[in-house]
Amino acid sequence: MRITELVLHSIAISDPPLRSSYGLHAPFALRTVIELKTDDGLTGIAETYGGDGPRAALEAMKPRVVGMDPFQLAGLWRDMERMAGAGERTQTYLVPGENPADQYARTFAAIEIACLDVIGKAVGKPVCDVIGGRVRDGVSFSAYLFYKHGGNDPWGEVLDPTSCVRECRQMIDQYGFREIKLKGGVLDPDIEIATIRALREAFGPTYPLRIDPNCAWSVDTSVRVGRELK
Length: 230
Hints:
By secondary structure, the protein is of the alpha/beta class. 39% of the residues lie in helices and 21% in strands. It has 8 helices and 8 strands. The protein has helices at 52-60, 62-65, 73-84, 103-123, 127-130, 161-175, 189-203, 219-228, and strands at 3-14, 19-20, 23-24, 28-38, 43-49, 142-146, 179-183, 209-212. The strands form 3 sheets. A 3-stranded antiparallel β-sheet has the order 1-4-5. A 3-stranded parallel β-sheet has the order 6-7-8, covered by helices on one side. A hairpin with a 4-residue loop joins strand 4 (28-38) and strand 5 (43-49). The radius of gyration is 21 Å and the shape is elongated.
């Protein structure tokens, strides 16, 4: 079996005025959908970061990928790792998907998932069994809370603990989430601490809580927040 085509689809998904440590989200979230087609008539699907840079990186790999056996992923990674070379891999000051030092790892991951999809179809197994085996029948999804400005959406402005609890209640009522994640690194850390405490008070200890500040805090701040929320 050989890959005969690598087809890329650029898409844009409407996004509310969400906040993260990187600033205000753009009105649209950009993604790239990958199709790998094989001479056996199988198609593998994956998705990754959108925009001109990630698409160009995938386009550049077409000569290496077309004609490849999708089972031979180790050789592809070896070649791409050589292209990457050494360098700083931190993402602290870069928007996700835009660190040039991570370009080859991101590009490989997108192609790898599409290949695994092909492999699963070829052997008649779900991908979870291809990469080690199913260990559970379901995985929880978290209510994913963002601080946000008011916009043309059902969530309203969320810039303090009270409105964040309201946002979370809307999500849980609508979708039945049983876990909660807050995208932090936006407001003063003390306000974000108060937000986590308000969520615990509102939903109780049976709802696991997470906070993700996107590398915005110093080590000292991270330790302080951890101790405050212990």
